[in-house]
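If you are new to this repository, start here. Below is one unmodified record pulled from the training split, so you can see the exact layout before writing a loader.
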Amino acid sequence: MTQLANKQTAFTILSAGALATIAFDAFGQGLSPLLGYAKLAPVGLANQTLKTVFGASPSGLAHLLHVFTGMFAYTLGYLLIARPLQQRIMPSLPWIATAVAYGVVLWVFALYVMAHLVAGNPPFLGFSGITWVALWGHIVFALVAAWVMEARGIISAPARQHAALA
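And here is the target side for that same chain:
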C-alpha cells in the first residue's frame, strides 16, 4: 500500500468514527429526548467505568474515552473484524445487514459487558427506556461508520471476487 493510500485509509477511519460518533450523540442526546424518549449518557457510563476500574476518573477523561471508543475502537472493529468475518462466512450479505448486526453487538458490549460486568449496573440497565435508545443509537453509529468506509472503498471485496478478477 502506498503512503497516499495509507493516509486516505487513516482519514477514512477517522472520518467514519467522527461522523458516526456525532450521529450517535445527536440521536441519543438530542433527537431521542426531543421526541420524548430517554437521553443517552455515554460519558456518564465512561466515567463510572473509569472509577470502577481505576478508582478515579480525572476531569475530562470520560469524554476522551467516549470519543476514542467511537473514533477508533468501534470503527476499527467493523473494519477489521465484523466485515471481514461476514465476507468469509456470508460473502453475499449486504454491508448494511452487517452494519446493523454490528450495531447490536456494540449494544451488547456497551450495556452488558461494560455497564453490567465492568461498571456494576443491572444487565442492559434494567431494560429501561435508555436500553432501547442505546440499541438504536449503536445501530445508527454502525450504519454511519460502515457507510463512510464502504463509500470510500477501504473495505476489500471478498477473496473469491479477487480471485475471479485474476
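Two things worth knowing about this chain: The mean pLDDT is 92. The first helix runs from residue 3 to 34.
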